[in-house]
Amino acid sequence: MSNPVLKLGLPKGSLQDSTLDLFAHAGFHFSVQSRSYFPSIDDDELEAILIRAQEMAHYVELGAFDVGLTGKDWIIETDAEVVEVADLVYSKASMRPVRWVLAVPESSSINSVKDLEGKHIATEVVNITKKYLAKHGVNASVEFSWGATEVKPPDLADAIVEVTETGSSLRANKLRIVDTILESNTKLIANKASWNDPWKREKIESMAMLLQGAINAQGKVGLKMNTPKASLDAVLSIIPALRQPTVSHLADEGWVALEVIVTEKIVRKLIPELKRAGAEGIFEYDINKLID
Ligand SMILES: Nc1ncnc2c1ncn2[C@@H]1O[C@H](COP(=O)(O)OP(=O)(O)OP(=O)(O)O)[C@@H](O)[C@H]1O
Ligand SMILES: O=P(O)(O)OC[C@H]1O[C@H](OP(=O)(O)OP(=O)(O)O)[C@H](O)[C@@H]1O
Ligand SMILES: [Mg+2]
Prior knowledge:
- By secondary structure, the chain is α/β, with parallel strands linked by helices.
- The chain folds into three domains: 6-93 and 186-217, D-Maltodextrin-Binding Protein, domain 2 (3-Layer(aba) Sandwich), CATH 3.40.190.10; 98-184, 3-Layer(aba) Sandwich (D-Maltodextrin-Binding Protein, domain 2), CATH 3.40.190.10; 220-286, Alpha-Beta Plaits (2-Layer Sandwich), CATH 3.30.70.
- Helix content is 29%, strand content 31%.
- A five-stranded mixed β-sheet has the order 2-1-3-10-4, sandwiched between helices.
- Strand 1 (6-12), helix 1 (16-26) and strand 2 form a beta-alpha-beta unit.
- Helix 1 packs across helix 7 (198-217).
- It is globular.
- The protein starts with 5 loop residues before the first strand and ends in a 6-residue tail after the last strand.
- The model has no long low-confidence stretch (mean pLDDT 96).
- The chain binds adenosine-5'-triphosphate, 1-O-pyrophosphono-5-O-phosphono-alpha-D-ribofuranose (PRP) and magnesium ion.
- Adenosine-5'-triphosphate is lined by residues 11, 13-15, 52-54, 70-71, 73-74, 91-93, 98, 147, 163, 165, 184.
- It is an enzyme of class 2 (transferase).
- Its EC number is 2.4.2.17.
């Protein structure tokens, strides 16, 4: 009998680079040949396919892939029935969610959703936009946009519903946000039948745990040091209480070893303070995963 295989859909497009980077931190090193949509991986039980985030939930629902990554936005827009295994909060450029916003030219007279009555809106998320208008009892026409949506107002549309992360695309096109329609983050999703298969489920759950661990470790480092027992209280008092430091005994009775995980940003300030408080042999190390 051939080995069982888990088919994994990886998002091509905005999420591709950050997803492959996250998987690498989680311990899955894919190699992608240019123009190939089948990244290879040193795991016989895993088969990866690159596919657009817009279509991911649909193919996972159908069972073409057992598991995949896409945004909450496209799961809602395509109305796909899939198991949402884990929220993995990362975007193209940051570890924050994205927002789908209603935006208009800075000089537009549209200041609220009510002002859209009879207007023309361009967007990639037609269903989400239509539901939003219906919820507010507004009649407006919604046209599908193939991309580069920010360029459309005011000539090709009165308003747009577009995704924003850093806000730089909206600013560059002199657009103003009128309302936030949806906040979205990346999710690990699974096919229902695959989720009910014990072997696949365990493999998916392990993957979710490692990916979440890699996200938790982002921006964090480990610090190890020795300190005389007499200075322990002083040293502990300056370590921020993200989580309890580990204190271990050393052969020399007068000393203890301390290990702690802290935000990388504060290390520059923290290390000299630790040294002054009595700590010695301080070293900093990168961490890839942090599992609760
Ligand atoms: N900065 C970002 N811009 C756009 N989409 C983002 C961003 N960060 C995360 N995403 C998410 O990525 C998914 C969109 O990726 P998708 O491949 O569908 O489209 P795209 O952004 O148009 O890609 P492309 O680079 O090919 O234009 C959505 O789920 C969206 O929420
Ligand atoms: O708020 P920001 O950080 O600027 O990010 C949002 C922009 O990034 C994406 O564009 P993409 O690069 O995918 O180009 P596209 O318009 O061709 O889809 C998205 O469609 C927005 O235009
Ligand atoms: Mg795009």
